[in-house]
Amino acid sequence: MDNGRLTRSMLLDFYGELLTDKQRECFDLHYNEDLSLSEIAEQLGISRQGVWDNIRRAEAAMEDIEKKTGLLLRFEENRRSLERLLTKLEKLAGETGGAAHDTAVEAADEVRTLISRG
To answer: Residues 10-46: pLDDT tens digits?
Structure first.
């Protein structure tokens, strides 16, 4: 699995509630708030090593859960499918008139709503 910031943030969104409070907080502060290990350690009153251990454990746990469930992967696949469908509906709306046009525009709006909900 890609370990970019966006992926890490999405992992936290999907599985963060399954972590310990300390793991979730360290992970969030480091990757979403962009705080250094030292800043987090000072804020939480633990060592830098403690912060790093919590982040590593959190990431390992979330990646393990993702391997077992595949929720994030399916979410991303569904989003890409919806975006392809939206493109086709917009093309159809541009090529048709009357009721077919209105139906394609309506369907495209519904797909946009699904995409924006995440």
So the answer is: 999 999 999 999 999 999 999 999 999 999 999 999 9
- With CA atoms as reference, report the closest residue to 75 among 15, 5, 4: 15
Which residues does 61 contact at the CB level (< 8 Å), separation at least 6? Answer: 15, 18, 19, 23
| pLDDT at residue number 118 | 78
> How would you class 15 by CB atoms within 10 Å of its CB: exposed for 0-12, middle for 13-18, buried for 19 or more?
buried
Q: Is 1 helix (H, G, I), strand (E, B) or coil?
A: coil
Cβ atoms within 10 Å, residue 72: 19
Distant-in-sequence, close-in-space partners of 17: CB < 8 Å, separation ≥ 6: 24
